[in-house]
Amino acid sequence: MKEKPDNNLFILQWIWKSYLRNALIPLLLIELVFIGMFFLSNNWSQREMLSLLKNEVRAHLQEIAQRECLIISEQISDISPVAAANADKIINTVTNQILNLDLPWQGYGLLLGKDGTVLALPDRGEKDWVLNELTNHHYNEAALKDAFAPDQFNLYKRPDLAAFGKQVAGKTTGFASINLGGMKQAVSWATVTGTGWKLLIIAPENNIYSNADKMNGRLLKIGSSMLAGLVLLYCIFFFILFKKSHKMSNSISQPLLEINNIIQRIVAGDYFQKQKDLGVHELQETASLLVHMGQQLETANENLLHIQAKLKKKESDLQALIKSIDDIIFEVDENGIFKNVWTNSEKILLMPVDQVIGNPIQSIIAPDKSDIYLSKIKQVIENQEPDVFEYMMDTLYGRRWYLVRIAPIASELKSVSVSMRDISERKEMEKSIIAAKEETEKASMAKSQFLSNMSHELRTPLNAVLGFSQILQMDKSAPLDNSQSESVKEIVKAGNHLLMLINEILDLAKIESGKLNILIEPVKILPIIEETVAFIKPLAKENDIEIAINPRDCMEQYVLADSIRLRQVLLNLFSNAVKYNYNSGKVSFYCEKIDKFIRFNILDSGLGIPSAQLPAIFDPFYRLPITANNVEGTGIGLAAAKQLVELMGGNINVKSQEGQGSHFWFDIPCAEAVDRRDI
């Protein structure tokens, strides 16, 4: 393969070639043309002289504009992706070059952006164009952004220069004579290749033509000497220029070599470099940046070493943490290959840790379960959501239960972390709890069955006693005396009370054993309340208790309940309100609709319940200590009422204060959709 020819030039060759191409040859040609024109136009009139001079000025200004545009274009072309960081320096150089142009006739340059914005204008030109640079704006920033905010800095948007702006915008090069600042100005422009920028060269026409008359007489005298001296002048000039180029190349190459040495030392690891005076501002800035970069690299290297030390410490801490816990932690990729393993005991696995890494999950998990693992791993990677499940695995300790958590790892590699915690002891404990619960339920069922059987066994002879007692009361053939009649009444009363207690025990046993049948149907509230009040009034009358029913609209509504069990709950609450009341007390009832429920409220003015006893009043066989010996009952009624209400889809609650009565309420679902005509 042939090597590409080296087309790079030495600095001296590059400078000399640039001088010849861009300055010397065009300047020489212009001078020769100018002298030839001088001899040909010597006999022309003053008017023709001025016209010719004007054309010359136009050509000269145009040449200067094109030359400077070419220089700017070359400087702009140096902004490559690699050198984009130095774009501001190059733009700054271009701006300074325009601002410091040394032009004949006290002329100056003006650089326009592609949209007509003034990018560079020297101080002496601001007066002509009636512009003052904004205090918060700089030309180099304008060149970078290619925009000024104010319209007075935009040549194409100024009404007073509309025609001239249109002419400049429409042509890549041109010449015009305009009135600026009360003076005629000659303006020539050219376009900077690749940017759309326009470079305008402006010179006062008074300065251009002021010496025309004087030169007309002198040209004849000096024309011949100019031609003779031109050859000598250019020979001397070329010699001096060559020496200057050689000196300039040396002044540039030495700093560049020093910069190259700085870079090589930094690459070798000697980050801290001393800055030397290179004599060229731009190269000095480059060297400064390189020295600063070396210092930053040294700092970054130190930080990297520090971070590496911290990572090693964290890794050791992580290893210590892993050794302190019993969990097994794996890193697994999407194909089920173990990438890493952390555990404090290798005996948990079926093989050493170093043999697990790189193997598939089938190496430690049964083949019939590995597919489940793989599907869960892929699901976690796809959904980016963790998954938790329990799994039994064979280990060197035998079969053990593990709580497995699979979580995605935030990285470009598709992998997950799998943590496994031994929960075998917990599973054994759960089995024990379940077994104990089953035993408890069996004991509860046995108790309920026993109570049910005992209730049936007691109710049979009790019904016989009540039957014979009622026969004695109703037997007219052998009437009882007063003493006997009172005794029989006491027998009947005690028997009925005992029968009621037996029925309550039987109901509670049925509820707890799950054998109580509940028929849920729409039930109208008012008849149930009337029947309950009619049944409880004799008991209330004995103790001079007032029963107050507050009529409400909800009394005419329906609830979804078992009518018998609803009546049983109301009767229990009303009887308690009467039994636990003071003489001449009061029991009140009202209902209200709350959302999709009907609330039944029973209030009494009786003894009340101590706050410490409230949590236990719905427990079976619980009775208030202060009334246990004074009020008949077993403590089953409220427990049965609570369970019956819950079976009907409601709930029961109480609010009470000792000595100030109690407020019981329970909620039953409404039957709003029931057609009243069908009931």
UniProtKB/TrEMBL annotation:
It catalyses: ATP + protein L-histidine = ADP + protein N-phospho-L-histidine. Residues 453-672 form the Histidine kinase domain. It comes from Desulfofarcimen acetoxidans (strain ATCC 49208 / DSM 771 / KCTC 5769 / VKM B-1644 / 5575) (Desulfotomaculum acetoxidans). Its EC number is 2.7.13.3. One of its GO terms (molecular function) is ATP binding. PROSITE patterns: HIS_KIN, PAS. GO terms for cellular component: membrane. Gene3D superfamilies: 1.10.287.130, Histidine kinase-like ATPase, C-terminal domain (3.30.565.10), PAS domain (3.30.450.20). Its main location: membrane. Keywords: ATP-binding, Kinase, Membrane, Nucleotide-binding, Phosphoprotein, Transferase, Transmembrane, Transmembrane helix, Two-component regulatory system. It is an enzyme of class 2 (transferase). InterPro entries: HATPase_C_sf, HATPase_dom, His_kinase_dom, HisK_dim/P_dom, HisK_dim/P_sf, PAS, PAS-like_dom_sf, PAS_4. This is histidine kinase. The lineage of its organism: Bacteria, Bacillati, Bacillota, Clostridia, Eubacteriales. Residues 314-384 form the PAS domain.
